[in-house]
Write a structure and sequence with these properties.
The complex is a heterodimer. By secondary structure, chain A is mainly alpha-helical. Helices cover 51% and strands 7% of the residues of chain A. Chain B has helices spanning 24-32, 34-40, 128-136, 143-154; strands at residues 5-9, 13-20, 48-54, 61-67, 73-84, 88-96, 104-113, 116-124. Chain B has an 8-stranded antiparallel sheet. Chain B is globular. In chain B, 21% of the residues are buried. The chains are: A mainly alpha, B alpha+beta. The interface between A and B is medium-sized, with 29 and 40 residues.
Chain lengths: 86, 155
Amino acid sequence: MELAAPFDMSQPAISRHIKVLSDAGLILQRVEGTKRPCRLAPEALSDIDRWLAMLRDALTKNYDRLDALLAGMDSDDPNSTGKDKK
Amino acid sequence: MSKLTLKTEGDTHVVVTRRFHASPEKVYRAHVEPELLKKWLLGPEGWTMPVCINDARPGGKIRYEWSDGKGGGFSLTGEFISLEPYSRIVHVERMHLPDPTPDNHVETRFEPDGKGTLMTVRMTLPDAATREAMLATGMADGMEQSYQRLEKVIA
């Protein structure tokens, strides 16, 4: 089975994993004769991925601003060079 | 530069790490002093934080209000559970979109990392309805609209 090829796992083990993913709604399977082609369920993955991407974007912006703020705070470190405020 | 890592932990939590070139004391203070928070806890460009109440002691109240500068915005309320200067803050918060979201339990740790700080934030992963509500607020700053355009293209 093509899906099993990259993994060091038996085909029955792969089939069990596929069933878990399918039951969770993360992959969709068709029936084509003896084949069971799988594809990722776009709605299921994109929900959490979209939210995580939004969180990552918001946090990146916030923490970049925090970097600038921290660089300008009064130094309690004698080794600090006293960086310019951005 | 100082890279952010963000991942889910099971299906209940999100863990974020970020390194800073400043001492744990400074990073901790930036998380509890309102005059500092208002300068960075803003989300997308163009947003401001007109209200920042942060009573930094166990049971102390948290209230933040953000404005997008165009008449929109939202708020967050919460309470501190424990604070250990300068290493750990535990608090609970919820957003008002305008309806309150379920409580989000957040634990923030600040550890020395050379001359800097490794910050780790562990928070509750919101449920699907809350995630959708958050995506709809405009916090995504255009990223959400981009995803919607992309979904139409690949459908």
